[in-house]
Design a protein that fits this description.
globular; 10% helix; 14-stranded antiparallel β-sheet; mainly beta; single chain
């Protein structure tokens, strides 16, 4: 599920132009927002609800300064733990107005595999100090060159939602740079137009559709392995996500959302 959680991160990013755009201003979300997803996985011909992924924003303090605490978690349901138990936590502290990062933490448990990673940013944003601990291995320390347009995974979710996608043309490819642990990954997404999506609860949304080129490795084939449908309104919330992985297919369905900053104008009202 951690890998699929990162799929959610990658897919929400929507950048226009040939180079990654930087954060400018936020008219999309606010503190108090909460969004959750049910994650399903196919075991042969059978689809099983495997877990829950959540995202939230809270007011906080960091080193005596006002901050937004971005929080996310990914957990398997107890009924799925016998197959492969996952408990993941992601936390990021950012300056609310400029979105300058203070710190990022990732805590992962996957079927006996443990990972703890912390990224701390210097005030200029030019250096990122990383420490990573996996299972019984020694802690690994790294100093990474920072960039205002390369985001840790959790920041990327929120920064991406603030970017203007109104000028994208069909099949436009958009590059993405995301810092995970101590490495920067380059992928792209491709704009596929607009569609109406019906959620599990029967609600229909006007959506913007994207495909994503993923990194070839233990989970993806390295093709456009993932599709995502994002609300076509000022909230830019993913409604439905589908990912092809080496051992099957994973889907995420919007479960709950509250504390939105803007009206949910993408929701299609049923006519009586």
């Amino acid at each position: 599920m951690t890998r699929f959680y990162l799929v959610l991160i990658f897919l929400i990013i929507t950048l226009s132009g040939l180079q990654a755009q930087c954060y400018k201003e936020n008219h999309v979300f606010k503190d108090g927002e909460y969004i959750s997803y049910t994650v399903s996985y196919n075991l042969g011909p059978i689809w099983v609800d495997a877990g829950l992924v959540t995202f939230s924003i809270e007011q906080d303090m960091y080193a005596g300064k006002p901050a937004w605490h971005l929080k996310s978690s990914g957990k398997t349901f107890k009924s799925y733990d016998l197959f492969f138990k996952v408990v993941d936590y992601y936390d990021a502290w950012v300056e609310p107005e400029t979105f300058h990062p203070f710190e990022f933490r990732r805590s992962v448990y996957e079927g006996g595999y443990n990972l703890l990673n912390t990224l701390r940013y210097d005030p200029t944003g030019q250096k990122v100090y990383s420490n990573t601990k996996t299972n019984n291995n020694p802690v690994r320390f790294d100093t990474i060159k920072g960039s205002s347009c390369v985001y840790n995974p959790l920041m990327a979710v929120y920064v991406a939602r603030t970017l203007d996608i109104s000028g994208l043309k069909h099949d436009a490819r958009i590059p993405i740079s995301v810092l995970i642990d101590d490495s920067t990954y380059e992928i792209y997404i491709r704009y596929l137009g607009k569609e109406v999506v019906e959620n599990r609860d029967g609600k229909k949304y006007n959506c913007v559709k994207f495909a994503a080129k993923m990194i070839k490795g233990t989970i993806f084939r390295g093709d456009e392995d993932v599709l995502v449908w994002v609300t076509d309104d000022e909230n830019r919330i993913p409604v439905y996500i589908e990912a092809k992985i080496l051992v099957g297919t994973v889907k995420a369905y919007l479960k709950e959302m509250r504390g939105l900053r803007n009206p949910l104008s993408s929701l299609i009202k049923n006519r009586r």
